[in-house]
Structure prediction request, 1602 residues.
Amino acid sequence: MPEAVSHKVQGMLGDFPTPEALLDAIHALRAKGYSRLDALTPFPVHGMEEALGENPSRLGYIVAAAGLAGAAAALLLQWWTGAVAYPLVIGGKPPFAFEFSIPITFELTVLFSAFAAVLGLLVLNGLPELYHPVMNASRFAGATDDRFLLVVDAADPAFHLEHTAELLRALGSEHTEVFEG
Amino acid sequence: MKTGKRYWRSLGELSDTPQFREWLHREFPENASEWTNHASRRTMLRLMAASFGLAGLAACRRPTEHIFPLAKGVEDYVPGNPLFYSTAFALGSAAFGLHVETHDGRPTKIEGNPNHPASLGAASAFAQASILSLYDPDRTRSVRQGRRRSSWEAFGEFAKDYFRDDGDGLRFLSGEVISPSLEAVQQHALQRFPRARWIEYEPVSQDQAIAGAELAFGRAVRSHYQLEKADVVLALDCDFLGLDAPSLAYTRAFASRRKVSAPKSEMNRLYAVECNYSLTGAAADHRLQMRASKMALFLAALAAELKLAPEMPARAQLSDAELRWLQAVAKDLAAHRGRSLILAGPRQPAVAHAWAHALNELLGNFGTTVRFTAAEGKRQVEQIRELADEMAAGRVKTLVILGGNPAYDAPADLDFSSRLTKVRTVIRLGLEEDETSALAHWLLPEAHYLESWGDVRAWDGAVTIQQPMVAPLFGGRTAAEVAAMISGYPYQRAYDIVRNRWGGAEAAWRKALHDGLIATEQVEEVKPKTRLDRILATPLPPSVDGIEIVFQPDASVWDGRFANNGWLQEAPDPITKLTWDNAALLAPSTARTLGVKSGDMLLIESAGRQIRIPAMILPGHAAGSITLPLGYGRTKCGRVGRGVGFNVYPLRTSNAMGFAAASSVRKIPGSHRFSLTQEHHSMEGRPIVLETTMEELRKDPRAVEKKTGRHELFSLYKEPTYDQGNQWGMAIDLSACTGCNACLLACQAENNIPIVGKAQVARGREMHWIRLDRYFEGSDEEPSIVFQPMACQQCENAPCENVCPVAATSHSPEGLNDMAYNRCIGTRYCANNCPYKVRRFNFLDWHKDLDALQKNQYNPDVTVRMRGVMEKCNYCVQRIQEAKIKAKAESRRALRDGEILTACQQTCPAEAIVFGNLNDPNSKVSKLKKQARNYQVLAELNVKPRTSYLAKVRNPNPELA
Amino acid sequence: MADLAIRPQDMQQELNPPLVTGGLSYRDITEKVSGICESKTPRSWYIAIGVTGSLTAVLGLMLAYLVANGIGVWGNNSPVGWAWDITNFVFWIGIGHAGTLISAILFLFRQRWRTSINRAAEAMTLFAVACAGIFPLFHVGRPWRAYWLFPVPNTDLNMWQNFRSPLLWDVFAVSTYATVSALFWYVGLLPDLATLRDRARSKLRQWVFGFLSLGWRGSARHWKHYEAAYLILAGLSTPLVLSVHTIVSFDFAVSVIPGWHTTIFPPYFVAGAIFSGFAMVITLMVIARQVLRLENLITLKHLDNMCKIILATGSIVGYSYAVEFFTAFFSGNPYERFTFLNRATGPYAWAVWTMFTCNVFAPQLFWFKKIRTSVPAMFAISIVVNIGMWFERFVIIVTSLHRDYLPASWGYFRPTVVDVLTFTGSIGLFLTLFLLFARFLPIIAVSEVKSVLHAQNAGH
Prediction:
């Protein structure tokens, strides 16, 4: 809750009407040496990552690892229970065989991967994060509706209350505000 | 008996409540539907009362006299171990020796006594099921005077001053007396009451056979057939493998001539002339459909053909086809003098029997294939007719009815039940509260044969002492005891009556009890001569124009006495596969002329009386004839049998007990739903039951194999090998199997298999682990029948095992397809994937509403399966384990071949089922599986069934081909 | 790489007719969709859920009655061990296939038109799978032991499952499918939940949607990982959705019963599933579109596309039927031959011909654009197809079982009232869940439609 924490400037927020305007502004700011920028948009904007200089998501690797774990778990389960823990003669078939273990192996691979993908998404994004200072900004709600917001972190070395604000206005921000938290 | 007394009193009070009577008087179908509902509070109370009472009784179950177990080594009873006792089961004029298994004083299972000539170790369906009647909760539970409860003491008092005089107007009525000790009491009674008479009546009797003998020989005799010696057999309306004779021994003898081990071996040939399709007809090599009323004529014509009798008009009435058939048979018979046999059935008139005798003598069969012993010339129907007339004339003051149920099954023209009301005092000793009990002034509970001392004489004269396994559950007494009581016989208690009838040294007595046979009784053999002139002088029965009706005992309820036996009611009729019902059986052609289909209601009139009964089309039934099975439509009977089926006795008159002419048969509105256990009757050309002929087999020993077709069988996996220890397997000889239901009932008794009721059978939920698949072959008009006992095949590559998600069914090292009931969750996937469809599912809790009393029959060695689990045959695994334990105790490694008998195998009169160790090359089963006739059903699926079949072989007459 | 952020050139070929009509702005879309679940609940909704709710209650009663008395209250018997129970199971699972297909496969194929319908379709998937799950669970004789189907060491027997059993594969397939679909759906919901959070007036809604949206801000980093995750889930779901009905078909294909034991089942079942799934989507969307006035977001173009897919899959299904019959006769296996002859002419012929009419002939009408674009017509046909697909499963299961190898064991199956009410009840449950969803959650993927709109505008 905003009241709970000490009121200090967390950053500045510029409000742009279109994704294009937002992208231009980001390019301009980075040209001016701003490094700690973020964009809040109602839908993913193409080219945003490049503009912010983000490196591509590492989620794929996590998922791959989980998938392998799933496959291994499945095979172990079927081999151990069938051939080691409680071997039974069933239908004249061997206690363990790849033929009949394929379906379950596949399913567990998918299951593990899917969990990894979702948990990975949350962890990498630091979610759940029910409170974030930027939520105090008056225009924050627009980010999930039809506005395209540019956020400059107060910790950015190039951050300056007046200059940054002017700069944002100059870049076409229809509303510029400082948010605290 | 304190607790006991309390029990019965409390139950009596209960039974007097209107609710209980209402419960009692409900129709059975409702009762079956009750299985799907929760146990009503009422039922709950009843069960609790009963179980409480039994708990109280358990203490005093043991009889006080000494009875002798078949103890091998151990003299004393070991708790938990079963004991076996010898006794005997009587049905009409026949008796069969038994071994009865008892657990902790409860009889649980019936087996045949191998020493007994009439059973030879086998037990019939009736015998198997009779144990259930012992625990029938609807039995007469107390002495009653009118509607008032009374006691034996009170009856004793009454009898003492009532039976003072010389027996004026006193009549005794009982079933056929085949008990020597009862005969003794009978004679004493008739001396004590000079003016009294004793009538013996069975609805299904040998009257005509005796009359026939008197006609042929001038004296009554009893025929004994030596089927093992007969190469050519002609059965005339005589189901000697089924209901028309003491069939166990006959089946054994007949089957011994049907199992062809090598192409060289000799096989007998059976010709059957019959009206209804019987087991004998199904086993026959040639079957001729003929109306019952025409058969005497057929025999006369045969006599003419064999030059025994002069040419007579008889022949003219035979069709060309029939004549051709007759000539071929005549030739065949003549070619086997002394090795042939002609049997006439009990429905046939005296003259037919006489002709049969004459022909047998002509063919030199006397002394070789047929022997005779002396018999009394009593005619039961005449006796009861006289009795009825006396009753009508009011000359009968006192009628003592010992057993039987004349009010239901006496000939209709005698109008017995209404005349019974003219009798001042009717004293009735009865097992259950039936039509007759309802008319009695004194109702006395009869003791079941498993709970009383007695003795019975088998058809061939062998006598067995009946031992009680438990003290009478409902304080019942035997006919001998009651007759003794009334006539002041020196001995009053059953044990003393029997013991003193036989006397002799204690050791001999003990041996008799142990063996189940008293050797002493010798029956004189007679060598009669036929008097052709008398036979020729006797006119043949007039030919029936229009439709004839034929009465025959029913395969499930006999003459009606087993109507309240759930096992028998649910046991499908061997031929029609009908359960919980009877029907008017008729030929497809007759159905067409009457314009009926199966299930349509018929109104049949004969001799001024009429019945309503549904029609059932039976391919192979003689045209122009309708078969009416007796014993159904009971109006006063226990819960199980009441209102089941249709009563045909109203059409059966004292002068036409076998068959009669129907004055009219017509379709009436309404239809009836049958519950059949098999609804499709064609094999669809599939190689399921393989059949071949002697000829074919001689030409090519591999004939059977060729019929199955070649199959390249391989598995994707390396299959487990079963070459260690015991590897159980089974071989079933279809050539021997007659299709009698003995195995089915033995399995039911052994494995605690529940009954499900008519409604559930209709839904296809019967639980029998072994079923007898019956297939028709050939045309609708002249089909042949084959049987195939079908139980779990114990496949080595069992498809059921593969699909069970929880591994509830898997393979034992001995090659059994095991079921883990407590692991089963009931997906039914295994049943779906079973090519033989032998798995049975507990769709509902079949045991829920079972009376606590009936649960005493349960085999403690077998789990009672709960609702929601799958079950099936397991080769009587409990018997296998028992034998292993025994072997271990005797520190033996190997089990002897034949040491383990599955329930179905043990009771099979034909010895068609053989079970044993496939790993032992010398075991009987291994040898059978080596035979050329051996094949597996659906072998092409590569499921490798452990049960295999020996193809059925018939031995047709080339001339009739 | 496919991604949510769309380059205008992707859109060119898809733009006429446009996927978003009526010149809506981002704000309008937000308003339109969020508005639905923020406005006051209409009486019609209460009436509808009253009806479906009581049907659901019937389902509950029937299941209770079943557990209390046993499978015998159904019509199942020997030889027909499975009947309506498994028929319903396969039916519902089949329905469940469209959602994932739309959200995953169409996504990978960059079929942008999916965005207006994928949310609802995915929801439908979940609810269908929920209904499907009921049947295998309750069709067992001892449901209180059903947990033995999962690989838990069993306490009283220390036994494990039999992994050779297709039924066990099924357990894994279906539960995996349910879980993954749920995850996929939730991930898709995140941005829209945030929208609802930020629009929330009441404290309650703020709290609820605040928690559900996990603090989603739509920051560039969020979107980066979001796109990755979405892509991966789509990539996983695609083979998964195909595997599920493949494995369901193994239940039959792996057995030895003529009519079941056939290799064509996997593709045949999958096609059938998509077929029935899309039919159900049309049934529901047509209603939603009408009631919630979403004509501008769910345009005729969307419906037209779905009709085309139904036409295609319907034809595949028809082809499969034909092939089945052909192989039966070509195989020379007498049992196989008989089974199919028996289907076409036996006691269940009526069911078979119903199936043919509904699944093979009816969809062929979609060759005509007139019908593909006539809402009432497609609605009617979609219903017919649903009926037909239920019958397909009934035919496969019951006609194969009721007459297999030994004629002596042949039988006939008749359903009981309980059978009928249980199935009806499951429909009630399905609709109830869908009504709740349509009331409280955005039934259209707002953020995705916005990106489509963005591309659409950029394209102009």
About this structure: Chain C has a mean pLDDT of 88. Chain C touches chain A through 66 residues (CB under 8 Å). The domain at 22-459 of chain C is CATH 1.20.1630.10 (Formate dehydrogenase/DMSO reductase fold).
